[in-house]
Amino acid sequence: MEPTKVLPVVSLLSIVTVEFGGHALLRFVTTDRDRLGELRERFFRAGHAHAGVLLVLTLVYFLYLPRADYSNGLEWAWGVILLVGVLAQSGGFFVHLGVGRAGARSAGTTLTRVGALLIAVALIALSAGLIREL
To answer: Which UniProt keywords apply (predicted)?
Structure first.
């Protein structure tokens, strides 16, 4: 099975979950705004915004990945690293929403940073493969 046929499906289905979560956020914010609080509302929005944009990035990534001419195993590895990075970066906002405090680090902010690093690694790997194939 080719990763560039399977992983985009995972991305597309993940976008649907982000849309549902965004809808839930909108309903929550418009009905129970005071209960959520400014910090939590900000991190809830940031988590959904990052997830949506980064999942669209994965779709573009999977279009270009075959052009880098990596082995099937490496395509799986880079694709999974990218998706895990996207989930970690956006998920970190939700973790911070649950356990974090304003102006303080938390497991969520660490997870967000780790996710950003994984995304960067996957993007650099794709770039290197594309440059190699010039």
So the answer is: Membrane, Transmembrane, Transmembrane helix
